[in-house]
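Running this now, will post back.
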Amino acid sequence: MVTTDQSPRSLQPQQANSDQHLIELWLHGRCKNTLEAYERDAEQFLDHVAKPLHSITLGDLQGFADSLFGQELKPSSVYRKLSSVKSLFAFGHRLGYLPFDTARPLILPSLPNELAERILEETEVLRMIALENNPRNKAILLTFYAGGFRVSEVSALKWKHLQSRDEAGQITVFAKGGKTNSVLIPAAVWVQLVALRGDVSGELPVFRSRKKGHLSECQIWRIVRNAAERAGIEKAVSCHWLRHAHASHSLDRGAPIHLVQQTLNHSSVATTSKYLHARPNDSSGNYLPLG
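Update: finished.
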């Protein structure tokens, strides 16, 4: 008589058949920038340990962490690389490919909060916009600042994503986390956006390259960086700094925090409140008898 093992474990399908297959499953569906960064991090880790994932110990993981600290990397880079490795092991364990989540006890380094350093003054942002003479590039700067968008969202915009609302309008983006988010755009910005369109189909990109396709994220990044340099800003300004500026400046001017949360598509108001802590409007020190 032939018997078969019908236990639940034996009936569970194998989700991954190799370390490389696991990594492919782990990366699937992530946005381009995240995918490329995670893939590099995984390759660097596996090159360092030179072992299959099943054989890696906590000591191996800690040794990798020590090697990163010895490379004089930015704390944020070390944090991201170790977070990537922890994510990979947690994913492999959830799928049943790895018997243990070996990376779970690995301690991530503490990071200083550098948000305040990345918030431009209102005058700096307005100077970037005023000194930009290219109508398309000026509209890009205005869209970032008025809508608080991410660069991936601005790069992907098509005219069908823009709808008029009386004399102003709204932009709908497919945002981070798979959420759809619609943001009202002030009339002054809307006019400059509509002026770019001409007689084109709704399927065409709002911000077009010379080849009439979507501007890439790298091309948009260069436009923002050049605008900052033209305005005399010596900091390494990125597109995301205009998102920070939108949040901070709107809160400074009295916008309700839940409205800012909704516009930026933050999952929690706690994330939005970081901007209040980064640029406080008052201090208990002002109440001391210091003259």
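The chain has two domains: 16-94, 116-278. More later if anyone needs it.
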